Amino acid sequence: MKIDYSNSLINLINSITAKFGLIPRHETLDVNILGKKFEQAERVVLLLVDALGYESALKIFEENEELNVFGRPHKLSTVFPSTTVAALTTVATAALPIEHGMLGYVLYLKEYGTLANMIEFTPLGMPRDSLVSRGANPSTFLEIPTVYEDLKNYGANPLVITANSFKESGLSKTLNHNAAVQGYITKTDMMTRIRKAVESQKYSYIYAYWPMVDAMGHVYGPDSEEYIQEAKDTLLNFKRNVFERLSDALREKTSFIIVADHGQMKANWKNDWIISPYDEFAETLEMLPAGEPRMMYLYTKDFERTMKAGLDFFKGNVDFYPSKMAVEEGMFGDVNDLSLSKNALNRIGDLLAIPKGDHSFTIKYLGNERHLKGKHGGFSKAEMEIPLFSF
Q1: DSSP 8-state class, residue 268
Q2: Into how many domains does the chain fold?
Q3: 24 contacts 17 by C-beta, under 8 angstroms
Q4: Closest to 83 measured CA to CA, from 366, 330, 350, 372
Q5: Could you tell me the residue range of the domain that residue 277 belongs to?
Q6: How far is CA 67 from each of CA 108, 243, 254, rounded to the nearest angstrom?
Q7: What is the Cα–Cα distance from 121 to 136, expressed in whole angstroms?
Q8: What pLDDT does 370 receive?
Q9: Average pLDDT, the chain
């Protein structure tokens, strides 16, 4: 699937920062997509629902007349790879993953000599935030700044609302640097904080993150009742506890946007390739792969040997791309050598491995990895297509 980087999450975030006076890093969305209210509003509320795919959002919208106030969702692409750490850092920086360097769930951090879980901000198998004790300062970890300091300089006081369990984590401190941050316990708590933040009229940009649709998809599958009901409840809860409880005057002066970071695809356990350190394919690599269940970064000095072993191991169900060629051909967006993260080429390895159909990978880093019923990180429509509600 070719990513439309003129109609994507990166363009949405640049539209928001441009609205408040910042020079956009990338193209903004077509003005008709966000509408006149967005242009004229005094503040923007952005709710990001983790893993709410476009088709699921459209189905929920069409089956619930109560959501008509949102308007029919517009279809956007997410960024590549289609995963939380990459997309949330794009929201925080208005930059592509290849520019900000947060290129996957598991990354090889050459500067720290380790494969690291970037959600937990730690070398694999170690307690959360252990990268901090290795010298990683969340305030300076990103190679480019977040948008929040510049937003404050332009008078658009930014607020991030995230779960209490994430609020003090290394990743949150990295992504939310220079923003005011509030925590929440439950979904209703989050919605109440959003509404009160609007009513305070203190903040011009209010960004809230809800993770549980993604959790339902991983555990039960993105076609499950649990996933759909969680997504539906989130949208209805926003309408009832934020939008409807605000005064007419505040609603009129506020642009409301709901979007996702990525979707999910249903994973077939029969098509899950288990990769251990001692199998024939892994032995062609310099280290275990980094990346995602639906996209791996491979480190090898012998492309031909690794690709040949991969074709045999995966029975032709995986495509291989030289990493530098993937960058040059625009897989990661329209970038040049100057805008690349200085660590980008190290972090995407030598080869990209992208499975076909509903195939995926489980890499036995620690030995206790389990099969997920919903996965993302790859190029399928289910993973890449996200909804945009603007009202």
Answers
A1: P
A2: 1
A3: yes
A4: 372
A5: 269-381
A6: 43, 11, 18
A7: 9
A8: 84
A9: 96
What CA–CA distance (Å, rounded) separates 78 from 318?
22
pLDDT band at residue 1 using 50, 70 and 90 as cut-offs = low
- 315 within a domain of the structure (yes/no): yes
pLDDT at residue 337 is higher than 80: no
Domain assignment present for residue 364? The answer is yes
Question: Tens of pLDDT along 338-371?
Answer: 789 999 999 999 999 999 999 999 999 988 888 8
pLDDT above 70 coverage of the chain, percent: 100
Q: What is the rounded CA–CA span in Å between residue 311 and residue 154?
A: 53
Q: Six-digit token pair at 306?
A: 């690794």
Whether 32 maps to a domain, the answer reads no
| CA angle (88 as vertex; 327, 321 as ends), nearest 5 | 20
For residue 347, being part of any structural domain is answered with yes
Q: Are 198 and 41 in contact (CB under 8 A)?
A: no
- How many whole angstroms separate alpha carbon 155 and alpha carbon 201? 13
* Predicted local confidence at residue 336, as pLDDT: 79
Interatomic CA distance for residues 283 and 309, integer angstroms: 9
* CATH number of the CATH domain containing 373: 3.30.1360
Q: How would you classify the pairing of strands 43-49 and 254-259?
A: parallel
